[in-house]
Model the fold of this input.
Amino acid sequence: MKRINLLFPLILIIFLAAACASPTPTATEAPATEVPPTQPAATEPPSSSGTGTQIDITLVDNKIESPVTTFQVGVPYTFVITNTGRHAHNFNISTPVSIVGSLDAAFQSALLAVPQNQLGAGASVTVEYTFPDSAVGQDLEFSCLIRRHYDDGMWLPITVTQ
Ligand SMILES: [Cu+2]
Done:
């Protein structure tokens, strides 16, 4: 983090210097401004407190972000699910609604379900989970099964391999 803090002003200075040198005004609105500065980097090393490989999952309004989308059967994972959005969300490992037919069916058949009352705005939940053999090759996704959120794209396809 310290390095990034030092680097960022440096990059700014380079940008400004480049802008001054060039007579043509350029639209150099840094796309980096879209990322909230408070968001933790997704490159944290695996936690030493949990038993499994730590995966930091972020819920936003209305999207799910995960640094990893391919998982191995039989490997214990520690999912640290953080809601950085302003609305409550739920988190599921479920079959796509397009396959099971409804949000309710997706919820009923979910492999893992963290309810919305645990994932209010700013909340973080840690769940240990190991994919069973039966998950290999299945169509699965991380999802928030709140209708409007799901319809807005709050699902992320995942793959489970042997
Ligand atoms: Cu949601």
